[in-house]
UniProtKB/TrEMBL annotation:
Keywords: Coiled coil. Belongs to the outer membrane factor (OMF) (TC 1.B.17) family. Residues 459-483 are annotated as: Disordered. The keyword Nucleotide-binding does not apply. This is Outer membrane protein TolC. Transmembrane segments: none annotated. It comes from Methylobacillus rhizosphaerae. The keyword NAD does not apply. InterPro entries: MdtP/NodT-like (IPR010131), OMP_efflux (IPR003423). Residues 464-474 have a biased composition (Pro residues). GO terms for molecular function: efflux transmembrane transporter activity. Residues 214-241 form a coiled coil.
Amino acid sequence: MKKIKQPPGLWTKAILCSLLVTGCGYQQYQPHPLATKQGEVSLRAHDTGDAGFLAYMREEGYADLPDTWGWRELMLCALYFHPSLDVARAQLGQALATITTASQRPNPSISAGAGRRNEPDVPEVYSLSFSIPIETAGKRQARIDLATNMSESARLHIAQTAWNLRYQLLSSWIELNAAQQQLLALEQESTLREEIVAMLSLRLQAGMISSVELSNARLQSQQLKQTLVETQGRVSELETQLASNSGLSLEKFRQLRLQWHTTEQLLNATHSVDIGNSLNPAAQDAALLNRVDIRASLANYAASEAKLRLEIARQYPDINLLPSYNYEEGFHIWSLGINSLLNVMHRNQGPVAEATALRETEAARFEALQASVIAAMDSSKSRYRTSLEALAQAQQAYETQQSQTAQAQTRFEHGFADRLELVTFQLENVIARQRLLIAEYQVQRNAAALEDSMQLPLENLAPMPDPLSNPPRQPAHSQETTS
């Protein structure tokens, strides 16, 4: 009796439908070439008048752009414009994408076949089989934990980048302000030294002094002029550095009206930080818990733990379920198979050993980081205390010199001192004030370093002027400043 061919049309349709479904929903590649000048154009496009930046400033409590810009306002510029934060945010996006990858389950596979024998009375042969992978031992959750901890480390990297920007901006702000104040003091000193040279020249013509005394005065005046030129160049360099740390081009930065210290604010500033209360062991413990790099190191250690757990789980092979259907010679054949690896050659010992060593390495890095942070805090604390003592001595020396200069002024007015003696005392007074300003700025530098070592704002930065409460003061490039 002749067999009737009954091709499984239903299964053929099912295969076609499955192929159509898997062909839908794919993303398309979109090229995005990077031009060489794109970075330069992007930096020059950073503008404080940008609508997005205005909205950001309103979110930070500013009704409009400030009339004068202090370092806190420039910090908002850096948080909005600086490209290093864009890199950190992009890295966070990349890390978050790994969570999606880690949480994906393995796709099943399908295979189909069709054929016929070289005999007219034998029907066609059809086959359809699936492979359904099943992960064992919690591998998927271990991958998710690994990716999650790595994304937490990337998130903390953004905070660390922002803090580094804050410290760099504050340091460059302090350095530029110090250089400008030094420039003003050097200009005053140069004027007084020129007066002294002029008076000594007259005395040399009158035979009252030797040429050696005049030569020494001229040499000191020339050396001071050279220092003055170098300081002017340093001001320009620091200005460029501050603009870069603010995320702005130098052209845009110079359009801002900046708020600076005045000499009187510096000389009247007091630093009231209680080192005993601020840097006691409890405060150090709080700093250790607060520091972003400490928390990032803990996240890296947790990731190494998840990595080890994943490698241990990979000792256990996954299972593949293999259901299949065959149609042959008019018969419908169903079958179910199981496929798995045999851990005969190895049991993943190598990756497990690597993950174990990685965990030990992360633990050692954490201990080393803690020790480094504690040492940095102790060193910063010592330097800050020393600078406070030096500031007190400089303040006392300046007050003494002011008293002596006032006495010389009185003697000059009553005819008991000549003008050369008065100008000499005035010169010594200017030099004493220079030393006081240097000591004041050294306190601010060490205060910023102490703040950076703890990654906690300190009250000793309070003398930094508030741009909304102090009269505006332009930098040297846009306004002549006088003492």
